[in-house]
Specification:
The chain is mostly helical. It has a domain of 109 residues: RNA polymerase sigma factor, region 2, helix turn helix motif (Rna Polymerase Sigma Factor, Chain: A, Orthogonal Bundle), CATH 1.10.1740.10. It is built from 10 helices and no strands. The radius of gyration is 19 Å and the shape is globular. The protein starts with 12 loop residues before the first helix and ends with a helix.
Length: 229
């Protein structure tokens, strides 16, 4: 479930469920407060994808805010040739890449040959019975996230989009400008690279959790910068 936090604007349940095209129409007509719904709708996705490039929380949140500002300021250029979700994801990717090129802080550990096991199933069961097991689960989650952070970038990005954010193969391919088959190959490779770290993992782990306070903080900051109080 997406974590959207507490809305600043007074929106009805029906308004919160409006599709992107209707929301964009309202925003372009001057009802800029509706941009909040889009921010909260895509906060978690952009966080996960930004995490594929950047590892510092401040950099990630700053890149997300920069992405929303760019999107808002350039809404007149969005003609609906692709979905808004794809358009804003591309802005996020370009923003993250620009930061990497600017700061030259990016590095990755190549572990292509770390694992050779042919078994593709990287999700194992972990029983959550008592406090000790919960602590173990938290430690394992940290290990998993660290392992994903150190995947080669081309595998990490596809894994974050497909396995963590549950984007479709088609959307992932379009955002990264690669073929559908390439997406499948990279995801397969990423899972194989991660298998050794995931022997005790469970499918319901909240990888790279996007928490309500982060959602509220980013949303409020962006709305303030675009003049929505």
């Amino acid at each position: 479930m997406n974590k959207v936090g507490t809305f600043i604007g007074s929106f009805t349940l029906e308004e919160k469920k409006l599709n992107d095209d209707v929301l964009l129409s309202k925003i372009k007509s001057g009802q800029r407060d509706f941009f909040e719904i889009l921010i909260r709708r895509y906060n978690e996705r952009l966080y996960h994808i930004a995490r594929g490039y950047l590892h510092d929380d401040y950099e990630i949140e700053d890149a997300m805010q920069e992405t929303y500002i760019k999107a808002f300021e350039n809404l007149h250029q969005f003609e609906g040739r692709s979905r808004f979700s794809t358009w804003i994801t591309r802005i996020l990717i370009n923003t993250a890449l620009a930061r990497l090129n600017r700061d030259k802080k990016h590095s990755s550990i190549n572990i292509d040959d770390l694992l050779q096991d042919e078994d593709q199933n990287f999700e194992m069961l972990l029983q959550e019975q008592d406090q000790e097991q919960k602590v173990m689960r938290k430690n394992l989650l940290d290990l998993i996230e660290n392992a994903i952070d150190h995947l080669p970038e081309k595998y990490r990005l596809v894994f974050m989009m497909r396995a963590v954010e549950n984007m479709s193969t088609i959307d992932t391919a379009e955002c990264l400008d690669i073929s559908n088959e390439n997406v499948k190959v990279r995801l397969f490779r990423a899972k194989n690279l991660l298998k050794g770290y995931l022997q005790n993992a469970t499918a319901d782990l909240d990888l790279f959790g996007f928490y309500l306070d982060r959602c509220d903080r980013i949303t409020k900051s962006v709305l303030h910068k675009i003049g929505v109080q």
